[in-house]
Amino acid sequence: MVSERMKGLGNARSVIRELFEYGKLRAAQVGAENVFDFSIGNPSVPAPAAVNEQAIRLLREQPEQIHCYTSAQGDAGARQRFADSLNRRFGASYTANELYLTVGAAASLCCVFNGLTCPGDEFIVFAPYFPEYKVFIEGAGAKMVMIPPEIESFQIDFDAFERAVTPHTKGVVVNSPNNPSGVVYSRQTLERLAEVLTRKSREYGHPIYLVSDEPYREIVYGGVKVEWIPHLYRDTIVCYSFSKSLSLPGERLGYVLVPAGVTGSGDVYAAVAGAGRSLGYVNAPSLFQQVTSLCCDMTADIGVYEENAKLLVRALREMGYHVVEPNGAFYLFPRSLEPDDGAFSQRAKEHDLLIVPGSGFGAPGHVRISYCVPTERIRRALPRFQALADSYR
Ligand code: PLP
What we know:
alpha/beta; 7-stranded mixed sheet; binds pyridoxal-5'-phosphate; globular
């Protein structure tokens, strides 16, 4: 006997992974240059040279020490460097003790959901949302409550949100810049969100935590500002990752920030650390704790994502696709050309265009295009998008 839930999760690959694997098989049949894989969010630009230089230097200078265990919550020096960087950039005063290092944003979120959840608790997510939230939240024993998308702007439908907040609401998850819409929440949206959460926390007599999942924090363009959410809402817990900003998804390094001002911050931090322990996520990779903390003020050369976004948005709109303007991350979330996004994705596949149905993100009638690919691939894919559109005329 095994856990049915875990067996189910292990057997059912995500739609994204399914398409990604199909792309590899298809490339073997027709040649990689003829498959236009826009399925997965693997950064297409290399990590900054300084990342490799620091890694090599550390391996040379500390050949034994660098591979050792660190404190469970991460090396104090590395945590201090992350805190200093946040303080410089956001005018805050965090200390090393407010940071818990772990293996990417995925583990950070799992530590937070597992650390916070008590029987009967619920977490609210706004569609379109990163599909793994459901796995992480339910894995922690909580219930995920989804707010349907506000499809004109992909900001927040506040009427639906207010109806969904109940005494069972333990937390609300935001992800801005957003995967899959590419939209950044405006200051107005975040202030309104903070106002509702403050009011409801007071009404129910317990804090409602805002879990801000920010792996795309630095990947923005068009002069859009990403607000530092803890300044707008006190009970914010930040989950971060270097997977996207430094193009290091395989190195598995991220952190949870539990600001000292959060209600019950000592207990929350202890619970996050306890969850990390219980899930076996202690001691994030030692080498990359050091490397990322020495490089955390830089990003990979992310300019290409803006170029890709502009190219795709302009071309797709000319072809008649409806696209909400993205402000960041490296995803586009156009409407599918038929109501059934699964059927649309299948039809795209016939043109060797691999794009992900929006239903898995809680937004049927849309598809996700990951444009973290070489610009040349986008240029060559445009006739395929045109042919796909033509097939509906
Ligand atoms: N959150 C969002 C919104 C993501 O898009 C991803 C990865 O694509 C993650 C979390 C997980 O990131 P990590 O690779 O750091 O675990």
